[in-house]
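S1.2 Input.
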Amino acid sequence: MNNALAGKTAIVTGASRGIGRAIAVELARQGAQTVVNYHRSAEAADEVVAAIAAAGGAAVAVQADVSDFEQAKGLVQRAIDTYGRLDVLVNNAGVTRDQVILMMKETDWDTVIQVNLKSLFNTCKSAARSMMRQRYGRIVNISSVVGIAGQGGQTNYAAAKAGIIGFSKSLAKELGPRGITVNVVAPGLVLTALTAELPEELRQKAIEQTPLQRIGEAEEIAHAVAFLASDRASFITGAVLPVDGGLVMSG
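S1.3 Output.
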């Protein structure tokens, strides 16, 4: 473990698997007391906590559907009650309901917007008061290159992820005078259980379009998040950092 985040408390939403898991593990590795948020995957979340504890870190799993305001508020309060403060909030929770717009159900639109975008309002509003009182905070929101460049069959997901960028820039201006930074990490195609199910043809197409000619790893996203969550990034706010092997640049 290094100590870049020693003494800090972090919440990572959607942290039971994939990119969220990697972020939670990395923040804990750098010394943060970490709240591993999950919605339904209690067993997976407990495994993340166990992995962190085995490496000498501190973590607790907390169930909450962050698309619901009261549950998001409760998650933030649980972190403060457990560790005494909240320094870092990473909004990673998200879902996809891909379909071309002529076939997309209204519920698929609403679910993606609610989980991917409204959850940020819920958690950030709940966390901001505590961070403003201590005049310190780091908020890192996980968007996607789809929110920058768009993607057919993902109008709902692209709208939510683009919304995260606009939301974060506006919030950075609101909270900056209180010493709180707000930044965005926009991953490209990353190897997770979800992307492992993609047809090989689509995977190869994405690799061909990526200048680095490979799929990213969840840990590479986690390293970027940990940097923005640390004091080494204290003069960075309102930034959008693509971690995509150059995919957006090539598009």
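S1.4 Remarks. Strands lie at 9-12, 33-38, 59-63, 88-91, 137-142, 180-187, 190-191, 216-217, 240-243.
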